[in-house]
Structure to design on (1135 residues):
């Protein structure tokens, strides 16, 4: 972490960048927040540990409009989002100085809580070069939790330790992939229509339409979201019934289909714990199976599957064969 | 708020017999925005249009809905009517209560309810319509004719005579097409070459006509008035400017085993060849597959004997690009393959031939120099059997469901010519029906029967079996006498179904012209616009549109030419104003729309945008209205919904959905 | 639920999006050939199948449609060359998603109908309406607020 701060100070000092986009300490150890740092002094609050899961790519849309270069720290998976935004002309490569930071998987405090640990006062050992288990201090005493047991779901399906775009790299990364990315989607696909309906009904009825998923999503980067626009008569409003929950999430997922890098931010920020990534991953799975493997953000110059076609594409009736029995 | 008038047409009894038009008027009048509703016998009539114009003036209407026939039929009529009355023509919507309602439903209550809903959807849409203004695009005053048969030649001559430049692209080495292969023509028995070749010469000599033979259309882009076409001139291996057409090369060519395409494979030709003596241009081509020089590198005799030094083995395909305002398609036909008709023994016996092959046999320049003889042994036949409808009017997959239209007449012609020249030859014709609708056609057929004694038997041939003695045993049913017949024949002639030339399929895709299940090009309207494709600027000439004989082909070729001339005579065309438009405040500049645009109509510019007081430079999509054709692909691809289609906006379509589901 | 007031039978609402160049003309041909199909089918004319936003289809269901069908030119024959290819991908993914959340898959369909295929248009609509009758009212996607 100190290495990152030192390098950031150097880049500020030599005028390469005029600000730094990173994370600073939150009110608890497990909730650092995204922040701009404009001076060496401000960087004293900089933090980079296992809880710095936030993907900073989307912030670069606004940072691209500011005067001067911004130093941004991107984890391997964040670079996919940055590439995708670059592809859509939403960020300016010349306005970004990218340090690819090392990552050994990011942590999810909910996973810790799920183990029956409550009254958390502090968490330590989450740094990049920290131990294999983290120490959780609570008002009831200290607990050791294995690092991997506290990881975000998305880190178990890690896309790899390689940064897809950067100016320099600091820190070692680790491929933490140890689960089948499509297992949960496949499990739902195997359900009967009634079971599927009940499953999503139960999950989506928790939605409070806070829009956190939309606001954090690097692919949902429109100046004005269709849900805020009068163009479709689909303006944002509180959910009144189950259809709107479904409608909102289907449309949201469809809007980012082919552009979603599966960064998992939507599920990470959902206050209700809805596994929103299951919508995006369904589209990714279908795209991979029907139109060939495609990873959004792999490069900045590929053609997204929904703005592409082949003459021999499957007919929509293929859903009758592939879908529910 | 709009002030909408609703006009419900009875269409005589076409609508009124199944839809309670009074009820539709009553229900429509209750819809939001509607200030006037009435019905009338024929809205499209002058009196009907006068009613609309009067209501627009009196009630100060801002939009109208006409509940009538399909918008494909009269949308233009009512738009013009509105325009004359001072209303923007794009403030007109049609509720299709005839084709989509009264004609398909029998129950009056059901049909009326549906008509009300369709009217409601149109009213909901017109509530959101905005006046649109068409743009203008230029017209390139040059026409392209694809196909150099009689259809293409006639269209080209007519367009050129009107003073416009015309290019003919023909894929074979000579113009002339199928008609050049025919011996005589019905019902006058003129010699085909005698009436065709002067036209070929006229086309070649016309100062406004350029002929590209041995050439194919490679790529087409653009739109009506402004097509850009890539044409591939295949390597002829002969410098056409030097060649004198002396024919020495063909005489000396040692490779003489290639089947002659022109003679339908009944005899052979040299590797360097002109397809027939009157070919235009009279410049040979080298068939590189057959040429010894190309196969082994040795030979080169043609080059040696060519006094003009015209042979060029190094010649390469050339692709050039040309602009056209109109395109006439005249790709013609071929006969179907008979592989699946084993019962006629076409592949087993040389003496079973198609009618087109018989044309070559009868022709003085053909493989038998015009002598009627069996191709197996050269013997004079005693009995010839003609089989009609081979692959035509066929209910299974082997043939075609349609009538090929020309077979009855050419079979009568063949029968008559044979009986005339060789009175000793017996001729039997098996037919399902004899179809002779045409001027002097039935008289012609009756002469064959009555004067020339051709034996017509209503019935189908089940099997043709080659016999050890070289004859053919024909087994057939006689439907009138209801009995099975067996007869010996020396030759069997199959009136083989015709089908559109296979080149038309990829061409239709390039032209974005619609094509039917039989690969005939579809006309814009089967009665009212029979020579135009629904795709603007594309005209249909000859058999590519449907089976035809020569006079019909020539008539249609002329009609297609007139339509093309009508287009070329204009300096500017008004463009469809229903184009895409990006909302600058919503556009992300992400380029997604440009990725799906088939016309390259979307570009981006950086523009200073004032977004509710926030001023910033933004990358914004800009649509070129002259290029945009209004498909709407971009509107769905656009993630933010910034891109919308004028005339078919998101809100308009949603309003229709809501109205239908209400 | 859309029950016929008199008979008490289920009368579905079916929205058919038809492209202007092929399928709408095919529907016209079905009409002029008097090839009947149920009045439950209501057609909305769009320039091309690629104009149909998945949101329109969801909107129809939201407002109580029991079935939505999209008809366009055959692949390769699109008036705008490529529109139906994009529509094909979009609809495949949308239908798959609807299946994924438990919507009966017969409620949506894509059919390519040319201007010359009046018979196919009529047959398709008859089949589709029969399928919707078999599935019954759309309850899973219906927004009950929209009903009286």
């Amino acid at each position: 972490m100190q290495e990152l701060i030192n390098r950031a100070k150097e880049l500020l000092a030599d005028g390469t960048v005029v600000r730094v986009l990173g994370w600073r300490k939150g009110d608890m150890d497990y909730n650092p927040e995204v922040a701009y740092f404009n001076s060496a002094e401000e960087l004293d609050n900089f933090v980079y540990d296992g809880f710095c899961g936030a993907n900073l790519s989307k912030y670069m849309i606004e940072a691209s409009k500011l005067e001067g270069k911004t130093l941004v720290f991107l984890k391997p998976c964040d670079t996919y989002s940055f590439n995708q935004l670059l592809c859509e002309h939403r960020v300016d490569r010349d306005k970004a100085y990218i340090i690819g930071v090392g990552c050994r998987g990011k942590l999810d405090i909910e996973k810790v809580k799920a183990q029956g640990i409550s009254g958390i006062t502090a968490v330590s050992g989450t740094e990049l070069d920290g131990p294999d288990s983290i120490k959780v201090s609570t008002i009831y005493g200290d607990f050791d939790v294995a690092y991997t047991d506290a990881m975000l779901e998305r880190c178990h399906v890690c896309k790899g330790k390689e940064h897809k775009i950067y100016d320099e790299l600091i820190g070692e990364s680790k491929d933490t992939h140890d689960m089948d990315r499509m297992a949960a989607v496949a499990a739902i696909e195997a359900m009967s229509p009634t079971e599927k309906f009940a499953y999503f009904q139960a999950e989506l009825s928790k939605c409070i339409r806070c829009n956190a998923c939309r606001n954090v999503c690097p692919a949902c980067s429109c100046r004005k979201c269709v849900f805020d626009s009068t163009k479709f008569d689909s303006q944002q409003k509180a959910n009144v019934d189950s259809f709107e929950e479904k409608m909102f999430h289907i449309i949201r997922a469809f809007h980012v289909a082919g552009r979603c890098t599966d960064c998992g931010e939507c599920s990470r920020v959902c206050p209700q714990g809805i596994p929103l990534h299951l919508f995006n991953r369904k589209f990714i799975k279908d795209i991979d199976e029907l139109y060939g493997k495609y990873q959004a953000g792999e490069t900045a110059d590929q053609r997204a599957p929904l703005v592409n076609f082949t003459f021999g594409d499957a007919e929509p009736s293929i859903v009758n064969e592939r879908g529910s029995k | 708020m709009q002030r909408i008038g609703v006009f419900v047409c009875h269409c005589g009894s076409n609508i009124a017999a199944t839809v309670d038009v009074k009820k539709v008027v009553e229900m429509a009048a209750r819809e939001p925005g509607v200030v006037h509703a009435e019905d009338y016998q024929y809205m499209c009539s002058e009196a009907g249009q006068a009613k609309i114009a009067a209501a627009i003036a009196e009630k100060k209407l801002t939009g109208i809905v006409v509940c009538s026939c399909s918008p494909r039929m009269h949308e233009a009529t009512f738009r013009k009517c509105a325009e004359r009355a001072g209303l923007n023509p794009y403030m007109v919507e049609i509720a299709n209560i005839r084709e989509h309602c009264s004609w398909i439903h029998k129950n009056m209550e059901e049909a009326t309810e549906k008509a009300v809903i369709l009217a409601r959807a149109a009213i909901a849409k017109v509530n959101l319509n905005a006046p649109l203004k068409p743009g203008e695009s230029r017209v390139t005053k040059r026409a392209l004719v694809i196909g150099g048969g009689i259809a293409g030649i006639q269209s080209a001559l007519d367009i050129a005579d009107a003073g416009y430049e015309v290019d003919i692209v023909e894929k074979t080495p000579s113009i002339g097409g199928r008609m050049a292969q025919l011996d005589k023509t019905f019902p006058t028995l003129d010699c085909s070459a005698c009436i065709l070749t002067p036209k070929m010469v006229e086309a070649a000599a016309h100062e406004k006509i350029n002929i590209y033979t041995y050439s194919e259309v490679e790529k087409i882009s653009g739109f009506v008035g402004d097509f850009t076409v890539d044409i591939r001139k295949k390597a002829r291996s002969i410098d056409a400017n030097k060649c004198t057409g002396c024919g020495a090369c063909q005489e000396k060519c040692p490779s003489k085993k290639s089947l002659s395409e022109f003679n339908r494979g009944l005899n052979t030709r040299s590797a360097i060849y002109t397809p027939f003596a009157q070919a235009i241009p009279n410049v040979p081509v080298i068939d590189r597959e057959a040429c010894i020089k190309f196969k082994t590198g040795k030979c080169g005799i043609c080059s040696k004997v060519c006094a003009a030094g015209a042979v060029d083995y190094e010649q390469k395909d050339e692709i050039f690009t040309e602009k056209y305002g109109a395109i006439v398609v005249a790709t013609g036909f071929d006969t179907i393959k008979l592989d699946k008709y084993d019962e006629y023994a076409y592949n087993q016996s040389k003496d079973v031939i198609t009618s087109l092959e018989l044309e070559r046999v009868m022709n003085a320049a053909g493989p038998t120099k015009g002598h009627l003889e069996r191709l197996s042994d050269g013997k004079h036949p005693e009995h010839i059997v003609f089989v009609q409808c081979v692959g035509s009017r066929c209910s299974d997959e082997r043939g075609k469901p349609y009538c090929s239209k020309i077979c009855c007449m050419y079979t009568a012609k063949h029968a008559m010519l044979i009986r005339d020249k060789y009175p000793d030859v017996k001729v039997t014709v098996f037919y399902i029906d004899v179809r002779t609708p045409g001027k002097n056609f039935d008289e012609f057929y009756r002469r064959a029967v009555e004067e020339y004694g051709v034996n017509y038997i209503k019935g189908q041939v089940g099997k043709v079996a080659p016999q050890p003695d070289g004859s053919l045993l024909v087994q057939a049913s006689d439907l009138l006498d209801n009995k099975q017949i067996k007869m010996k024949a020396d030759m069997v002639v199959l009136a083989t179904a015709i089908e559109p030339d296979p080149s038309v399929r990829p061409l239709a895709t390039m032209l974005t012209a619609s094509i039917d299940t039989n690969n005939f090009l579809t006309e814009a309207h089967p009665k009212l616009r029979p020579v135009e494709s629904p795709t603007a600027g594309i005209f249909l000439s000859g058999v590519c549109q449907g089976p035809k004989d020569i006079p019909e082909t020539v008539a249609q070729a002329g009609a297609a030419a007139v339509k093309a001339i009508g287009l070329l005579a204009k300096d500017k065309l008004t463009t469809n104003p229903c184009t895409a438009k990006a909302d600058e405040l919503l556009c992300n500049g992400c380029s997604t729309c440009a990725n799906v645009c088939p016309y390259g109509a979307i570009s981006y510019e950086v523009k200073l945008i004032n977004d509710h007081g926030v001023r910033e430079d933004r990358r914004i999509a800009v649509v070129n209205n002259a290029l945009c054709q209004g498909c709407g692909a971009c509107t769905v691809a656009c993630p933010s919904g910034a891109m919308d289609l004028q005339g078919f906006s998101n809100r308009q379509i949603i309003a229709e959905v809501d109205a239908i589901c209400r | 639920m859309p029950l016929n007031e008199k008979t008490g039978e289920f009368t579905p609402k079916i929205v058919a999006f038809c492209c202007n160049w092929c399928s709408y003309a095919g529907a016209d041909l079905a009409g002029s050939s008097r090839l009947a199909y149920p009045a439950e089918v209501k057609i909305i004319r769009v320039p091309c199948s690629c104009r149909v936003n998945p949101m329109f289809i969801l909107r129809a269901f939201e407002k109580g449609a029991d079935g939505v069908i999209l008809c366009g030119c055959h692949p390769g024959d699109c008036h705008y060359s490529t529109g139906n290819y994009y529509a094909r991908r979009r609809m495949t993914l949308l239908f798959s998603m609807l299946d994924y959340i438990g919507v009966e898959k017969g409620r949506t369909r894509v059919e390519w109908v040319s201007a010359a295929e009046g018979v196919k248009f009529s047959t398709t609509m008859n089949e589709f309406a029969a399928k919707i009758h078999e599935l019954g009212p759309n309850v899973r996607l219906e927004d009950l607020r929209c009903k009286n």
